């Protein structure tokens, strides 16, 4: 999935010393020379650096992929229905059985539920079948040279160099997603250095070919990003029609017991621990599906910044552990991509930070919409409609 979408999983720990940013945008050959100098200054052997960079090429297809992320303009119902197929559900059950001992170990050691990793594995690479066909070093160097986010990608290049020195990265043949992620659950080189686990005991971390390595590493990274062991992440709920909609959204939290007092009920099973903080999430507004988002749901945004991807991945994880198909409800029609951009432009002119005019209904746009709905005396469920757009 990442090969089509947003950059994911930003490494928090520094696996390599801080890199003084190499100037972006100049000729690529000059940029390569300066990256080599930076690598040597950080203590890498010159001969090793020369071998590592010998095959590097700029890849225009990487920049094209980085600029084209329209898949995230879909709403939650369309996006989740497209991604959560019967085939993926069946394969999820089969892989859960095949790697039961690995998942048991993960739950013991990291407290990450198997459905969570199965969903990532399915959505990222279709259980390892589609891992991306971009040369990883070329992708990382192309994005390091591009002036959009060099501070993110240049340290990833040096992390890949360290993996190369360990015998775990071949600059000429290692392939993955356009944004430089590698393997079955798509991890960046710094994340592999920090959180890579040899799950099958062969002495190497092989995220492309070893499911135990990939799953154990993914679980360790989730813990590293703040996953709370053995706690829920998302649960479908039924909300009363008279709920104060202005209290909904990820920017509003109450304890589970407080939500229950307001009439929030689980659609199946029971709610999480009464003292857990949680948010009521309405991805399609008050007439669509409703979820209770627990603290672990926030960790998903460390893996991927897209609201619709995160909500789909978290919901899919619950499905893989037996939750029923959501109640779709009857949500009001939303906005097209062009209409969403219009709305965002109007919100920006009103002084709101929408996180960029990109036609994507992300969390900042939702918060701005909810605030405007309150000011206009409308149900403040953060779901923008054509009627709201015309009111503005």
UniProtKB/TrEMBL annotation:
Signal peptide start-end: 1-20
Name used for this protein in its record: Lytic murein transglycosylase
PANTHER family attached to this UniProt entry: LYTIC MUREIN TRANSGLYCOSYLASE, MEMBRANE-BOUND LYTIC MUREIN TRANSGLYCOSYLASE B
Pfam families, alphabetized: PG_binding_1, SLT_2
Keywords: Signal
Stretches assigned to the Transglycosylase SLT domain: 28-317
Native species: Celeribacter neptunius
The keyword S-adenosyl-L-methionine appears for this protein: no
InterPro entries cross-referenced by the UniProt entry: Lysozyme-like_dom_sf, MltB-like, MltB_2, Peptidoglycan-bd-like, PGBD-like_sf, PGBDSf, SLT_2
SUPFAM superfamilies: Lysozyme-like, PGBD-like
Domain Peptidoglycan binding-like as annotated: residue spans: 336-392
GO biological-process terms attached to the record: peptidoglycan catabolic process
A molecular-function term among this protein's GO annotations: peptidoglycan lytic transglycosylase activity
